[in-house]
Automatic annotation (TrEMBL):
Originating organism: Paenibacillus konkukensis
Keyword Transmembrane assigned: yes
Topology of this chain in the membrane: Multi-pass membrane protein
Protein name (Swiss-Prot/TrEMBL): Chromate transport protein
Compartments, record wording: Cell membrane
Length: 396
């Protein structure tokens, strides 16, 4: 259960706490969860350790950005639906504004020739490689799950389709259900949540209604804005693993229609590593390049709306589901498939678009070493790679 204080403005309190995290939480979703634990569990004591672990487990299972969903959940526990919105705004707004400014500045440059922008594409190689390494060690640590990851990567590369990835995730979950059985599910206390089951059911109906209905509306009533909203909503609904796993699905949605070039896409992805907060705010950069601040708002709302609906729909039922061993088995298979999808993304589009010369490769492995061995913050690695890319363009 959450521990409430005597604050007269719980919504403002939630907004202030999440804004602090949004300004300081560098390092990706795993690091975000550590920041959240320190702020909400240790310092503010808004919830206990076991309840926090429960929320993390739930949000890692749901599609979408896990760290943002944990923050939204804590906001809902603290202040209802308005608390969830306040928590999301505080955590998301700093990086969203930074990436919008970057996108506007980018319009004055030739992204195909700017050396520092090529450096941002190269840093994406190091960041995604680090994510693959870390996730493989924790999510595919044995022969069976490692094989799932490798097969998923192979099929993803040979069948580059967002729907193909969804089928692979479902198949891996089904395999996990029958072949990765577990009998131990730790007991955890009840999570306090004021959302009713009726509201939760409405959230599920709205989620699936939009997920199924938007593509149909897009086919019957062709519209640029409807297509944009549908594409970003679908990515936010179907990406398991969050963070870097969003890369291949977003690339498949925005590059083939001609909304962005590969160079623009990867330059923005590199810049997204330099800002704190959720990586899903990459959608703001994409929307801004596509159609200014209006495109940014539509992309951002469409990208995160599934998270609100999924969290609202799942929290009231989580106590019953989390104790079932079958759930843990399905999750094992899904997580292994996520590693495979990320491994495929490391090759295409990240490696293929960024590494062209030995100089590029040297810069990539230098950035990887600074991340993995020296543990430097990602924003500093981004600056290092941008400078390295500029020097390569001048002297090579």
């Amino acid at each position: 259960m959450t521990q409430r204080t005597n604050s007269n403005s719980p919504i403002l309190e939630i907004l202030g706490a999440s804004a602090k995290l949004g300004l300081t939480s560098f390092g990706g979703p795993i690091a975000h969860l550590s920041y959240f634990r320190d702020e909400y569990v240790n310092r503010r004591k808004w919830l206990d350790e076991k309840s926090y672990a429960d929320l993390v487990a739930l949000c890692q299972f749901l599609p979408g950005p896990a760290s943002s969903q944990v923050g939204i959940s804590i906001g809902m526990m603290r202040g209802g639906l308005l608390g969830g919105i306040a928590s999301w705004i505080g955590f998301t707004l700093p990086s969203a504004l930074a990436l919008m400014i970057f996108a506007y500045a980018l319009k004055n440059y030739d992204v195909g020739n700017a050396g520092w922008l090529h450096g941002l594409m190269i840093v994406a190689v190091a960041v995604v490689a680090q994510a693959v390494w870390g996730m493989a060690r924790s999510l595919a640590p044995d022969r069976t799950r490692g094989t799932i990851a490798i097969l998923t990567a192979v099929v993803t590369l040979l069948w580059p389709s967002a729907y193909g990835q969804l089928i692979l995730i479902a198949a891996a979950g089904l395999f996990g259900r029958f072949f990765l059985a577990t009998s131990e599910v730790p007991e955890t206390p009840r999570i306090g949540i004021s959302i009713s089951r009726r509201a939760a059911m409405f959230a599920w109906i709205l989620f699936f209604g939009l997920l199924i209905g938007l593509p149909l509306l897009r086919a019957v009533f062709p519209s640029y804005w409807l297509a944009v909203f549908d594409s970003f909503f679908r990515v936010g609904s179907l990406v398991f693993g969050g963070g870097h796993v969003v890369l291949p699905m977003l690339q498949a949605e925005v590059v083939p229609p001609g909304w962005l070039t590969d160079s623009q896409f990867l330059a923005g992805y590199g810049a997204a590593q330099a800002v704190p907060g959720p990586l899903f705010t990459f959608s703001v950069y994409l929307g801004t390049v596509m159609h200014g601040w209006i495109g940014a708002m539509i992309a951002l709302i469409a990208m995160f709306l599934p998270s609100f609906l999924l969290v609202t729909g799942a929290l009231p039922f989580w106590d019953a589901v989390r104790r079932r061993p079958n759930f843990q088995s399905v999750l094992k298979g899904i997580n292994a498939a996520v590693v495979g999808i990320l491994l495929a993304a490391l090759f295409n589009p990240v490696w293929m678009k960024a590494i062209h010369t030995p100089y590029d490769f040297c810069l990539a492995i230098a950035a990887f070493g600074l991340l993995m061995l020296w543990k430097l913050p990602p924003w500093l690695i981004v600056l290092f790679s941008a400078a390295g890319g500029y020097l390569i363009s001048v002297f090579s």
